[in-house]
Amino acid sequence: MRAFPDTSFLCSLYRLQVFSARAVAAMALRDGSLPVSSLLLLEFRQSLRFHSRVYANDRAKGFPREDGDLMRGRLQADLATSVLQTVAVDWADVHQRAEALSARYTESGGHRLADILHVATALHLGAEEFLTFDAKQKKLAVAEGLKVRV
To answer: Are 110 and 101 in contact (CB under 8 A)?
Structure first.
C-alpha cells in the first residue's frame, strides 16, 4: 500500500479549505483507490455532525447540516465508485502499535488518540506515505518513517 490519509486530508478533500487544492491535486496523482479505515470514516462523519451542531449554536462557527449532508453524500459516492476503498484492519494489532506510539510520543508531542490510531493504522497496513495537513500528526508519521507528501 502506497498511501493512507487522515481526517484532515478527507476534510480538505470534501470541504473547501485552505489545503483543498493540495488534497485534490494529490488525488489526481493517484493510481487506484485510496484506502481508508472504518475508524477514519467514523471520525470524518462524526466531525461533520459535530460541526453542524456547533453551527446550530453559533452561526459564526461550524457549518450548516446541509453542507455536512453534501459532504457525506460525496464521500459515499467516492466509496461506491472505489475512489476510496475501505480496507480490513486488524484492530488488535493497530491498538498494540498505537499503545507503543503513545508511550514513545504522547508526553513529548501531545498527540491525540485518534491521530495516533491513524498513524498506527497506516503502519499496520504497510503504507509508505501518510496524507495529512495536521502538523503534529505529520511529525508523528515522519518519526515513524512515513513520508508525508501533501
So the answer is: no
- Contact by Cβ (8 Å): 123, 88: no
SS3 56: helix
Question: CB under 8 Å to 44, separation ≥6 — which residues?
Answer: 7, 10, 11, 14, 75
Cβ neighbours of residue 33 closer than 8 Å, sequence gap 6 or more: 82, 83, 84, 85
> pLDDT at position 149, please?
81
Please state the domain count of the chain.
Answer: 1
Cα–Cα dist 96/129, whole Å = 21
100: containing domain: 3-148
Question: Could you tell me the pTM of the whole model?
Answer: 0.94
We report the CATH number of the domain holding residue 119 as 3.40.50.1010
Number of helices (H), then strands (E), in the chain:
7, 5
